[in-house]
DUF3168 domain-containing protein
Amino acid sequence: MTAGNALLKAIHQRLSGDAALTAIVGADGIRDRLPPRPKLPCVAFGEMETRDYSTSTEDGEEHFLTLEIWSGGDGRREALEIAGIVHALLHDAALPLEGAVLVSLLRTGLRTRREPKTKFYLAEMRLRAVTE
């Protein structure tokens, strides 16, 4: 398993194992992608970019990941509430990775907007992780 896949798996486990978050989004509310007819609210994995971050003595990777927090009827307030829970669960978390070590996991930004076609609210949380 690559460090990137191990990171995604660990994040999914952390989010889906939290009772407060699953009470809001449901048991299947943490998704790898947004389905065509999503049950909202939900958290979906967005883009991930991985770069080499090796040093002269250690192999390493830097991962830039976006989590998409989707909300329907309750709009921006609900999206931001979920984003707050996700931030508390992941920011500077020590997640165990299969085949790699997580050195750092930090939220680098959050952007919210209303999607014009669907009228759903989207909060995009950007994370930066370093693995060895």
